Backbone:
């Protein structure tokens, strides 16, 4: 790819850490913006501690003048969004608008937004949602993501912004650097508990299902967007649904874990299941390369070595 000035918000997060690691192997000027310290320090990356809601975003954009913004920073917990919808809206909508509006007068060429595939469509058992389906989010988190999507589509249709806008709706991403102590990310959470010989909790019956996609496959799509003029909205998924209990059993078998799961009441905002149609993303020459078994092994080995 050509040398670019790239600003990545949420760069200290799970996907951001993996993306920056890959981008740093190319001749780019990379700026990582986050309120958290980076999980991994890369010497050539410029790390900036700043909230996307900050009034200083304007000055930062003018100083950096990025040609590409990859916007990942978010309040990403469904359950927290249900408990505190004002906070969720303030970060995911107001903060995102603050970032985007300050970039309109810059020389920005591309704006890539990480939305959500798992929480935006709602729930209809047996249906694979595609990008033409009307989103019906069932949590404040999904609502805030969808609302910012609507703003981006408005800015694009009205030619208010000259940049190419791409919206990504990923399913459940997993892989190295995912927080094993957080609320989301059952692969890392389960594996970390099992490595420590601790009890593993499942919120719900275990029959709940999701589409799991390995982080490297998500990054490969980002690179496709960076190296082309692809715009619009895209589901990023494996196209295969997997039950939570099957994730538990697969990780247990790899680690030789013998305990049974502890079943708990489902958390507020959680849906039973969602499946995503990834045919639009595949139509531009992208596809997943890491199957679930390989992805689980990679994630577990990373946690063992951490």
Residues:
């Amino acid at each position: 790819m050509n040398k670019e000035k790239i600003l990545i918000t949420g760069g200290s997060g799970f996907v951001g850490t993996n993306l920056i690691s890959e981008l740093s192997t190319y001749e780019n000027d990379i700026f990582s913006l986050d309120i958290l310290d980076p999980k991994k320090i890369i010497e050539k990356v410029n790390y900036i501690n700043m909230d996307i809601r900050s009034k200083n975003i304007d000055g930062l954009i003018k100083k950096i003048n990025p040609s590409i913004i990859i916007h990942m920073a978010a309040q990403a917990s469904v359950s927290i969004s249900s408990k505190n919808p004002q906070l969720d809206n303030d970060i995911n909508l107001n903060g995102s608008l603050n970032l985007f509006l300050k970039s309109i007068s810059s020389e920005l060429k591309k704006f890539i937004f990480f939305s959500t595939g798992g929480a935006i469509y709602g729930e209809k058992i047996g249906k694979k949602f595609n990008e033409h389906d009307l989103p019906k989010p069932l949590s404040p988190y999904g609502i805030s993501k969808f609302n910012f999507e609507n703003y981006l589509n408005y800015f694009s249709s009205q030619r208010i912004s000259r940049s190419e806008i791409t919206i990504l709706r990923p399913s459940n991403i997993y892989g190295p650097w995912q927080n094993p102590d957080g609320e989301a990310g059952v692969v890392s959470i389960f594996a970390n508990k099992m490595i420590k010989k601790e009890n593993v909790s499942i919120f719900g019956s275990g029959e709940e299902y999701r589409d799991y996609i390995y982080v490297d496959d998500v990054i490969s799509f980002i690179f496709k967007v960076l190296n082309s003029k692809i715009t619009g909205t895209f589901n990023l998924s494996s196209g295969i649904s997997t039950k939570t209990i099957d994730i538990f059993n697969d990780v247990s078998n790899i680690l030789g874990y013998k305990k049974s799961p502890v079943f708990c009441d489902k958390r507020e905002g959680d849906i039973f299941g969602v499946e995503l149609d990834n045919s639009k993303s595949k139509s531009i020459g992208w596809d997943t390369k890491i199957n679930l078994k390989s992805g689980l092994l990679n994630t577990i080995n990373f946690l063992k070595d951490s």
Summary: The chain has a mean pLDDT of 95.
